[in-house]
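Worked example

This section walks through a single chain of length 290. The input is the sequence exactly as stored; nothing has been trimmed or padded.
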Amino acid sequence: MSDLKDNKLFKALKNKGTNLESEMSFFDHLDALRGHLVRSAIAIIVITGFVFAYYDWIFANIIMGPSNEDFWTYRTMCNVGNALGRNFCFSKFNISLINTEMAGQFTLQINSSLMIGLTLGVPYLLWEIWRFIKPALLEKERKAAGGFVFYTSILFFIGVLFGYYVITPMSLHFLATYTVSSRIQNLFDIDSYISSVATLTIASGLVFELPMLIYVLATVGIMTPKFMRESRRYAIVIILIIAAVVTPTPDMLTMTIVSIPLFILYEASIFVAAGVERSRNKKHDQLMAS
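Given that input, the structure is written out below as tokens.
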């Protein structure tokens, strides 16, 4: 019997059983993940179908909204300027769009509907991801990360709204009215317009996830509030560069409007990192006391 246990073949069969159990566990998790992804895909397809069905109204009022002279941002800036005795009104502009492909308008409707569906489906997608990783967490970890879906979704949509109502209209107005020569007429391809609006809007939503990113980095010990406070001067420079890139307008007013929320996000991220550090120190003191 002892010789049997020492036999290489017996050991290989024993290890094979262990590996098979691990592989089955892995495939079980993979099957569970597939279920979450399938449900997320169905939800996004449903939202996309709804957008596709009401595309005429969505295209005229939402997609083309920032190109209209009576857009909320332009009217608000003008009213604020009048109240302060300053001229913040935007000059009138007209964006002429063209389509250069045979199936361009059809693919435009499909692609933009899918893009809006993905954007609106972010909360449900995050919720399905949370449901997948939740069983692997301890009770304390579940409580600590309980608001992950809510806060991530809120920050994302606040960023999307900021990008749509602030960054996008200011950038479009500048680019649409900028001319090198009066002999050159601005005719924009519809794909270029949609790409610009989507990029500025969604990128803003991702930037507003900075506090959640800092929370994760602080939790694993990569980011500390001390480091962020000491790096504040460099962060200010980076924020101003980001504001200059996402808003091609040369005036300081636009850069200031874009920079202020980014400064607030950075300070909020320091507060988040400090909270994580206090929680970690408290747990460490309790462990040492016991």
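What to look for: The beta strands are 97-98, 188-189.
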